[in-house]
Amino acid sequence: MADNPSNTRYGGQRQIPGYQLLEKLGSGAMAVVYKARQISLDRVVAIKILSSRLSKDEEYVKRFYAEGQIAAKLNHPNIVQSIDVGQAGEYYYFVMEYVEGKTVYEELAAGKKYAEAEALDIAIQMAKALQHAHEQGLIHRDVKPKNIMITPGGVAKLMDMGLARVADDAKAIESEAGRLFGTPYYISPEQILGRKDIDFRCDIYSLGATLYHMLTGRPPFQGKTSKEVMIKHIKKAPRSPDRYNMELSRGICAVVEKMLAKNPAHRQSSTKELVEELQSVEFLLDTSDSADTAAGIENIADNIRKIAEIADKKSSVHKPAPGKNSLKTPLKNEQPSVIRVAERNPLNKLLLAGFIASLILNLILLLLWLK
After folding, report:
1. Which of 208, 257, 258, 297 has the most other CB atoms within 10 Å of its CB?
2. Which CATH number belongs to the domain containing residue 12 in this structure?
3. pLDDT classification of 333: cutoffs 50, 70, 90
């Protein structure tokens, strides 16, 4: 049978039963992902189909089904929703929510530099998604830029539960002991060491490595080989993110460094705590921006007041003394002060009015920009 299931006919149509394959979205070592239409509900979905080579491997098939079943337990706006899992002939498939957009990996590969506020927003959404998964007793074990999809509306979605498992699954823990699961650039030290006591804190580390990459344009550790990178995860402390991006706040650097602690006990004590810490940084960042704006507006207002005072003083110098006749006959070679005021005041007032109008216009434009 051909490896492309869209060439397999079911009921005279090229489809997985109940689904019509529309186009190929991507492929990896384990599976191919298609955009498809769910015929019964007339909606667009994504279908992941295990490769025919791995379909003969009982362990991979079991893991593939487990991915669908684990994802089905999760219902969160920042997690790609599971819809169905099944078998069609020789093919095993997993149906999920179709998400339009780009992965963080694609944006980084295209040279995008994330501003702190944008990276922080995505990290908070991912931390909330992980908090939900962890509260259901599940750990993801493969948080990385490729598994974070960003929709055109800025919603971040956590994808690919292929390596996820129940945190306290004793059988899985025993069978996976000493084996490495994860991606070298973002994997936690305890995963590299194959420890049995891996828990939610491995996801905090991986999200920290991902956030580090978004903030600095590079992962925390680099090397010529995967082995070299993973040794650094175990033994070397990453440089503070502000070494590569001096515009970062001290708050975000402190949170990322804590997420990347070698010892899991030194990281955030829960994903809820992580969410709260990230939100605190976001609040301080917003407050700092607002304070700078308020200070700028106050400076403009203060300048307007000072200019008005100066103009007032200049105008009063030329006013005739009270009780005196300002229209008396002038002395020889003397021009009456009332004439000097008449000649100079209109111009002064016009210049002052124009300057003040300009300042007010700048103030209005600044307020509109802030909105």
Report:
1. 208
2. 3.30.200.20
3. very low
CA–CA dist 323, 181 (Å, integer) = 96
Task: Answer yes or no: pTM beyond 0.85.
Answer: no
- Phi and psi based region of residue 367 (left: phi greater than 0; alpha: psi -120 to 50; beta: remaining): alpha
3-state secondary structure of 91: strand
Burial environment of residue 337 by CB neighbours within 10 A (0 to 12, 13 to 18, 19 or more): middle
How far apart are alpha carbons 370 and 177 in whole angstroms?
A: 53
Active site residue 142: yes
Domain count, the chain: 3
Residue that terminates a domain, selected from 97, 121, 147: 97
Q: pLDDT for 48-105, tens place per residue?
A: 998 888 888 888 888 888 878 888 888 999 999 989 888 888 889 989 999 999 999 9
The contacts of residue 318 (CB under 8 Å, 6+ apart) are 337, 340, 341, 344, 345
Given the residues 3, 42, 121, 142, the one annotated as active site: 142
The reply to whether 259 falls in a domain is yes
Report DSSP state, residue 79: B
The position carrying tokens 């049995």 is: 196
Residues 225 and 341 in one domain: no
Q: Which domain holds residue 122?
A: 102-288
Q: How many CB atoms lie within 10 A of CB 15?
A: 21
pLDDT at 199 over 70: yes
